[in-house]
Amino acid sequence: MSAALLEIEGLTKRFGGVTAVSDCSFSVPEGTITALVGPNGSGKTTAFNLITGYMRADAGSIRFDGASVRSPNPVSLARRGLTRTFQQARIFPELTLVQNMVAALQQPWRAVLQRAVRRHERTRALELLEEFGLARLAGERAGNLSYGQKKLLEFAAVLMADPRLVLLDEPTAGVNPVLVEQIEQRIRELNARGLTFLLVEHNMNLVMRLSDPVVVLDHGTKLAEGKPDDVRNDPRVLDAYLGG
Amino acid sequence: MSRATAAGLARGGAFAAAGIAFPFVFNQAWIVNIGVLTLMYAALATAWNLFSGYTGYITLGQAAFFGLGAYTLGITFQHFGIGSGYNPFYALPLVGAGIAIASLPIAWIALRTRHMTFAIVTLTLLFIVQQLAFNLRSLTKGSTGLMLPTPHFAIDSYDTPFYLAMLAILLAGLSLCWLILRSKLGLMLLAIREDEEKARGLGIRVTGAKLIAWWLMVWLSAMVGGVWAYYLTFIYPESSVDPLVMIGAVLMTFLGGRGTLWGPTVGALVLVPAQQYMITKLGASRLYLVGYAAVFMVVLLLLPRGILPSLRSAIDAQRERRRTHREPRVREEAHA
Amino acid sequence: MHELVQAIILGILVGGIYALMASGLTLVFGIMKVINVAQGALVILAAYLSYALFSHLHIDPFLSILIVTPAMFVLGVAVQLVFVRSLRGPDGSELSLLVTWALALGIEGVLSVIFKTNFRVTSPSYADNSWSIFGYQVSEVRVLAFVASAVLLLALSLLLTRTRFGRAVRATVQNPTAATLLGVDANRVQTLSFGLGVSMAAAAGAVYGVIYPFNPGSHYDLISRLLSIVVLGGLGSLGGAVFAALAMGVIEAIVAVKISPVWSSFSFFVVLITFLLVRPQGIFGVRERVL
Predict the structure, then answer these.
(1) Looking at this predicted complex, what is its ipTM?
(2) Interface contact B190-A157, CB threshold 8 A
(3) Which residues of A30-48 are buried (b: 16+ CB within 10 A; e: fewer)?
(4) Which of A175, A242, B77, B206 has minimal CB crowding within 10 Å?
């Protein structure tokens, strides 16, 4: 088992009387496609938000790439190589696809006065867009894309900054089967090139095919963690999904 | 240099040339006076647009910085002696820079709140500055008002130096907007305006970008206030930190087109002469407030995107219609 | 010490009236994410109406609440239908800020034309009466105004918690889409709530005019305070608005006594900014949920 790129320890988040995430601990080994699954309300999306700094945890710790993450916030995490996509495919509608891509490049402050889209950045953006089959729409306004195309664009954009770990929030939700396959392909290829993924997914077939390990959450805490087959046959997991 | 850049520079150059020539061609005092006011509002609107148009955060505190610029110049005259004639103009960029730097902590606090709260907090800032102007009597002479020394410009072209100063600030503002729009900072700001949380998730340094835009807005606004104070030679709290002036600038930006380069200036060119006319006809009875309100309502409710974007859409639609009309056969072939 | 307690009493009495005005403001925000910058101007409008009713028809200002409030409820409904409803889209909230500001200017302009800019104050015979309670001076009108405000705020809270309309309102605040799906007519709720918010201003205005001299330009002073109050209390929180209003009253009164009256409103603004440093969402506000 390779070293853990991301380690969650005792993560807890309460909303008023509801504890969405409760003493949750798991890890994402480097170079894997780790899946985070669980029935609705099990705390997956909240865990995502806590890990990526969009919400502040009430308790618990996060370690990324060997270093502890005190007060996580999205900007610094992204710049450290931890990035995410959103369930609703968030892109910048008024900007073109190329602009969407180049905006995702993390710039040092001295770059502020440079031209918005420099030639080599445009080339790189077009290359990535090509891999995702979007290159012909490069100059289009991103808001004109179909939902599936937006999901692809969002995925492509987070790769521009060469992240270490990509958190995919339901990458295939609301997307047609052809596109599901395309997204699965991309994930495999990128993973083969060394990119680590943590995905939240409801599509169980996809999860079982694609990921190892699988982490199962239930009522905000980890129920099981391991190879897909082991987890699938774990009686506690079956109980959580099928039981009352 | 791309064609678009060359065209943009040509437009800017033509505007600057026309602007410089104007007070020498039309040199009657009342015309140049309207010119000063028009440029003042255009500069304020451009500055407002630089921040609010590009970040999407509506700020209602601009009058505070205008007033701070006015009073800082006045106080500097009183307590330090800043020279006379043209010298005060040269001091303005420094004055503006100082005020802009001083405003950063408050901006940082305000920018942590959501858009609506931000608008209210900046408005509160306006009232705070106005209160300070009233209360710090030893510095500002309170409601009695502060006098600035009258410069010894030639009587028959007295307004011209002020006109040129306002023009310089406007050109600086336009240049900054133009540079920003083409730069990475512009891309960052547009991303922030579109979806700030998404921008954060991509690692865009959202707070820093907003603060840069803020600093530039305050710098420009304070300088405008300084020129205005010097022009009037007499300032008092209600007139220096006047929400109405700021609302006018905001209205002009909306009318011309928020987020565009020339929109605020277009808005000012349309509304300031109209406003001056309204004041001369209706000023005494405060009915012009109703006129203001009416124009505002019309612009916000009927033309919310403003003149320039609406024009551009209309032109694009026209082009699209012409293109599809011209090339129906091509589309049929593509389907075959 | 005596001075301090006197100031606190005064502050609470003042805060009560502001709480009534602010409640309307924060309620409207909670329901439709609109900040009615004209709330101050509407208070002043009500003050003028009450003043006119007293001057010409000798109707007691506290009784005039019964006339002015329904009248301005109708005005509020009309305003929402004509100006505010059409503001949709992502910019709607911020545009509403400017549209209602324009409304405030319009009201100021009209009032200036009709009443000129002289300061007025509604002066019933008991305007200068005061009582002495445990050695503290309390002005009769201020107490009456406070009581009226408290009663109306209580009525508002009962309306929101005990009636069908109130439930519809609270549902719309929490989740407009879900509320619509459950049969709530969101448009109607919004329109009626806007009217309700204006009614609060109207009632407050009627009594405001007895205590403070006012002219058409007074709305700036009012709205600057009201906005600070609702932000401090947390946009959308009724309890927060009441608390913050009372806090404002007390803070300003203490500063007026201990330092100087000219610094009282300034000090409240400073309190606001300092508080936001620690808690940007206000006292009872909710941190904006991102996702």
Answers:
(1) 0.92
(2) no
(3) bebbbbbbbbeebbbbbbb
(4) A242
